[in-house]
Amino acid sequence: MGVARKNQSVQDWITQQWVILFGQKIDKSRFEWLFGPFGGINGIGLKYIKELAHNENLLIDNQRKDKGLLDSIMDLGLSENDMKKLSPDVIDFYENTSNYDLVLKAKWNPLFKAFGILVKIIFSKRIEQLNVPIKNLEGSMGLTSEIIKLVDSQTNKVKRTVWLRTFKSTGEVVYSGVYGTCVLPNGPTCIKAVFPLPNGNATVILAPTVGENGELILDSSGKKIGDSGFYFLLMDSKSEIWTKFIRSFKDTLVVGSENGRITATQTLTLWNLKVLRFVYGIRKVL
User: Fold this and answer.
1) How far apart are CA 119 and CA 97, in angstroms?
2) Beta pairing partners, 230
3) Is residue 188 in a domain?
4) Which of 16, 111, 146, 283 is the most buried (most CB within 10 A)?
5) Nearest residue to 262 (alpha-carbon basis) of 86, 98, 137, 90
6) Rg of the chain, C-alpha, whole Å
7) 3-state secondary structure string across 70-83
């Protein structure tokens, strides 16, 4: 059995050992679709992004404008019929995300709020990641929304796209994720969001569909490894890689537009119970 790395916080060691105990060891050559950047032990803020660029011999692109989570919506491999239905506003948001401002509302299920508080105290502030609000936000809270492109120093080709979101009022990092697409073993192309954690990451793979009103629906309701869903990955003390697929945890994001006004609703569920609901107001500023 593997052993998590020493010389890190006790709480990180325990959670990593849990992944080893209840997950499975994997071979990178067979799980290339799942892999993404791992974090260090000193936080996942702007400093980490600079470290990632250095470690992968990439440059932070400060010249490119109109930066999007996706270089092209065509990267999702949607059908011709779905592309005709998909809202042009939603397409523009994903291809030019840096041109948009975000505000956030949040509502917790009271049954899970204590769990959220515990995660925030033990992990979020210290590692600068997954720093979700604990209080219900009935009024909107402003977020910065920065798209950072890491490019190959020789070809100038984009290799990593980082979406960094912080609270405008406090500067706290809410999410720092590496976004892209992946093709699952059973065929579909999905959006992959990788949130680096100490010696590993949390990865959410979201399968896209298009709703009747042109909204983009991203869903992580897979049933097994190889499906869309929520995964933990980590590297143990012998540099072996382990993953744990969390079947009971699901993330659904619906991004739509009505009369030129874009909104996104994200619903997190555990054991089919609603844990947390985010509503994002999305406004074009450029």
Assistant:
1) 29
2) 204
3) yes
4) 16
5) 90
6) 18
7) CCCHHHHCCCHHHH
Structure tokens, 256: 């739509």
In a domain, 5, yes or no: no
Overall domain count for the chain: 1
Can you read off the two tokens belonging to residue 255? 């991004």
The candidate with the shortest Cα–Cα distance to 229, out of 250, 212, 215, is 250
Does a structural domain hold residue 1? no
The pLDDT tens digits of the residues spanning 199-236 come to 999 899 999 999 999 999 999 999 999 999 999 999 99
Residue numbers of the domain that contains 200: 10-284
* Contact (Cβ atoms closer than 8 angstroms) between residue 209 and residue 188: no
For residue range 74-90, list pLDDT tens digits in order. Answer: 999 999 999 999 999 99
What's the burial of 263, exposed, middle or buried (CB within 10 Å: 0-12/13-18/19+)? middle
